[in-house]
């Protein structure tokens, strides 16, 4: 599964770079002399300073596209569900523990596997975009290579922001469906909340509840550096979730 996701990520990001190089972004998202709506900031991965009708915005769209989100959610949801909840649901967790394997070791090793899987996905996307930018002088004039790697680091922070809470759900839950549901709620619903908050001003305060408010690859691509405050919030949310998962797993009943 992971190999297929990595290949799909590389192909998709390469396609985004090809489109950005072949067609000026301004022609894709402007009509009648008007720029794209402000809600399109959600698709460009920007807090408002970068338009999707630009090379940084279009490449940022490739790093916040529903396809990109689906790839991330597939890896995180399936592996997080298998971490604890799936073993509890099937009744195999007691067999694992009898070796004996401590609860801390169980969760730590499976969390590490999930973090490495997320790192592989984001590294694949980052390298695909970096190669494309390096081979395209027009794009490179607006997007520094450092910005590409900064956006990739932000993507890994976003993945960690999802991993922490869904691992906590896996540590608490008894069904893998609960973990998959939590993954979708944080990822897909989080994107929808951010989009609504950008499109409808009365809902603007809701953007702070979405990880996509802090994951802004378009800004990182345009500025050429990591947005440390946003990255800190993403990583901090993930770490808190993992700490909670460890605390809960030490005390819960693992009987199916």
TrEMBL record:
Domain of life of the source: Bacteria
Record has Membrane as a keyword: yes
Keyword Transmembrane helix annotated: yes
Keywords: Membrane, Transmembrane, Transmembrane helix
Positions of transmembrane segments: 67-90, 111-135, 147-172, 179-200, 227-249
Protein's name according to its UniProt entry: ABC-2 type transport system permease protein
Native source organism of the sequence: Streptomyces spororaveus
Organism ancestry: Bacteria, Bacillati, Actinomycetota, Actinomycetes, Kitasatosporales
